Amino acid sequence: MSRRVIFVTQDHEGLHGGGAGTLVGEVARRLTGTGCEVTMVVASPDAEAATGDGYETVPVTVSEPDGSLGWFVGRSQAISDRLGQLVAETGPVDLVEFTDFEAPALWTLIHRHALGLDRTRIAIRLHGPIEAITDAIGAAPPPMDGIGAMERLALPMADAVLVPSSAVGAWAIDRYGLDPERIVVAPPAVVDVLQVGWTPSASPTFAALGRLSETKGTDLLVDAFGAVLDRHPDARLVLVGPDGWSALEHRPMTEVLRDRIPRDRADQVEFVGALLRDEALARLAGAWVVVISSRYESFCLAAHEARRAGIPVVVPDLPAFDAYRTGAGFAFFDGSAVDLANTLVEIASDRGIVERLAAEPAPAVGDPTAAYLGPLPEARHARSQAGLATAAAQRLDGLLRPASTWWSRPARSVLRALPAPVARVLVRLVPARLKDRFRAGASWPEEEARRRAERRLRDMRRRIEQGEFPDESGPTISVVIPCFDQGQWVTDAVVSVFEQEHRSWEVILVDDGSTDPDTIAILDDLARWPRVRSIRQDNRGLSSARNVGMEAARGEYLIPLDADDEITPRFMADLLGRLEANPRAAFAHCWAELFGDVHALWATRPPNPYWERCSNSVVGCVLMRREAWKAVGGYDETMRDGNEDWELWVRLAAAGWEQVRVMEPLFRYRKHGETMSVATESQFERGRAQIVERHPDLYTAEALRSLKQRWYPALTLISDAAVDESHDEVEVVPGPPDRGVAASFGKYVADRRGATWPLSVAMDLVRRLEAEPDAAWATHSATGAAVWRRWCLVDPGADPRGGVRGTGAAPGGDLQPGAYPDPEWMVDRALVPEGARLLRHRPEEDALTPEG
């Protein structure tokens, strides 16, 4: 199978010897031999010097590192920009693979939608994350600590993580919380090397092969060798490889090592320096063993090259070597200098050990191209991509944001003390070079929000004192607010209920095991407000807290409101009117205004039973009939990682209940840091898998096919004549187009009135549009067939990225963008709050029926 693959690396073999650059270059060469089109994007200060052997190289020239975390983020952004240009210029790519260390993939993964890489598989190959290395050596000086945090963000975002072995894959799953189904075993390419005619020297000789560094454990080997000399004074140690830099002592590694060698034994340790591969192996032909004393390895190329040259190898007890414990010419030690010394003493005392090891065959590592040519994990669902990107962007912003300084508290106090007009002027007068640092400690938007909240609270306390809220013995609506250590927001949530135009309601606060004293004090104070009841329980999760509150509710209708969110004054009145108008509906929901860290209007798509089965488009805060909640057993309390609301909507729909959508932003969703909702989005696929596990009968291939044929066929075919052909993915509706489009449910629409092209042509165009998610149409030049994305026909505001564009010649005919406006698909721009972005929930579930 021929594929187009882009490798992104900062360690190219043409620039630096050994390491990941050598492994990536060899895999690239072998893939070109299979017919794959390979491009190497090289990001380095000397990138222009990189050349490819059978593949194209694309340089991304960056400045020399300046020691700041911002430099590494800037390089990741430069890679992303060039990658986006490359894909835009040359077309779709099957796979983009990044190296792991220093997180070059992070910016691309955060901005993959803007780059047009939503459906392109993005993989990270595990070579040696900086975080794993700094943990192994016990030091993470800046900016290494920040780089490690960036790697921890990037790895779980990748569609696939390529590992050299299943043991390393298990290690990565455990360390980084990766999805096991996204781990791909892809052994690196090991080249054939010179057979050196191994003949061990007369006296015990031990050798190291590779860069001298703490990561490679060269200091462990030197310490262990000192102990060996006590038993075998004639032993020798040969260090072959370039000098490294000591992260612990901040000086060249050769200096560190020489200081550890007794002066009277210095002539028994030889520093050879860097040699070419075959020359280095030939230099070690007389060594008894090559010692790999690394503190961390994912795949040790030096160990495999030494074995292929016929030299026995000593390795540490690491996952990288798990597969070679017997019969591969390896001897093991436990990773400590003491056990390494014992192992080397044993070898020096019995030459037969190394002779037996040398006689064993070198280990085979498998075909390095197989993973690229076989099935790879699909690109993550758009919901998961969005959630992961949001969480990563927030954390990255936190890493880069200047820390609060000693003057942060007094600066905030000054802002609080000044009248608003004066405070605004003060913030504007801060010198530009200090603005970021000032805002990190004293933000005017945060201060303005605090003042607004205080005004609302003062006004509400006044109204309560005036007796505006007498007790309700039989409220219409019960608002259930679970709270776990969110005291800074919960008062705003309760105040938003007291501001409702509808007046028959109660509030039930459920303290789900809060441990924060301030939160507990705030909840105790709110419990003294009229119409507010409080329940306290051990921490059992959001679903349990909602169920407990709803069991205690007296209202006919229920509202699950999170402690950090709010509802607008018309929420109850508008949703109640719509819900009462449809007795078959279990709940009414609306659009959301995002506020806090983000200011936007989130416009959800029209309800569709198939879409709702596949992904959630309903915000968690709804007005729900208590009867419906009780009929299906409430929230599933085993859903503790999010998606508990979606699982409830699925059960309600399966029980025959409908829903009502109000197309206005009546719910206010606070975006602050990495909220549970962001985490839920980032785990969308895992959440869907949990729902499937709980309702397997709803997710069989036949059940999904049946639901999709009714509610979301791939293609709506407008035709005035009978259609002889039939296709499970096609619905046929009569013309004219305005009536046909209005009556259709297909993701795509084609007008075949007066034409005779076969359905197979239209389905080929459907597949082309599936691969181009921002294209409005696709045309077939030979037959004149044209297929349109239905959303573009019914929504004049639908604007695929870069404007309305398609694949193929622009079609003529009656089907044109926005020609058949449908209010259910449109957004009244007057509803978008001032200064807010409009975020539209695209109905982009896959058109073709899944296999279950």
Model description:
This protein is of the alpha/beta class and 852 residues long. It has 31 helices and 29 strands. Strands 14, 15, 16, 17, 18, 19, 20, 21, 22 and 29 form a 10-stranded mixed β-sheet that branches. A 7-stranded parallel β-sheet has the order 3-2-1-4-5-6-7. A 6-stranded parallel β-sheet has the order 10-9-8-11-12-13, with helices on both faces. α19 (487-498) runs parallel beside α20. The longest helix is centred in the N-terminal third of the chain and has 22 residues, at 69-90. It is globular and about 95 Å long. The relative contact order is 0.06. The model has no long low-confidence stretch (mean pLDDT 89).
Topology:
Elements: E1 4-9, H1 19-33, E2 37-44, E3 56-61, H2 69-90, E4 95-99, H3 106-110, E5 121-125, H4 130-137, H5 144-154, E6 160-163, H6 166-176, E7 183-185, E8 205-209, H7 218-231, E9 236-240, H8 253-260, E10 269-273, H9 277-283, E11 289-291, H10 301-308, E12 313-316, E13 330-333, H11 337-349, H12 351-359, H13 370-373, H14 382-400, H15 408-417, H16 420-429, H17 435-441, H18 444-465, E14 477-483, H19 487-498, E15 505-512, H20 517-526, E16 532-537, H21 542-551, E17 557-560, E18 566-567, H22 571-580, E19 585-596, E20 600-603, H23 609-614, E21 623-625, H24 626-631, H25 644-654, E22 658-671, H26 676-682, H27 684-694, H28 701-711, E23 715-718, E24 730-733, H29 737-742, E25 748-751, H30 759-771, E26 777-779, E27 786-789, H31 790-794, E28 806-807, E29 837-840
Parallel strand pairs: 1-2, 1-4, 2-3, 4-5, 5-6, 6-7, 8-9, 8-11, 9-10, 11-12, 12-13, 14-15, 14-17, 15-16, 19-22, 20-29, 23-24, 23-25, 26-28
Antiparallel strand pairs: 17-21, 18-22, 19-20, 19-21, 25-27, 26-27
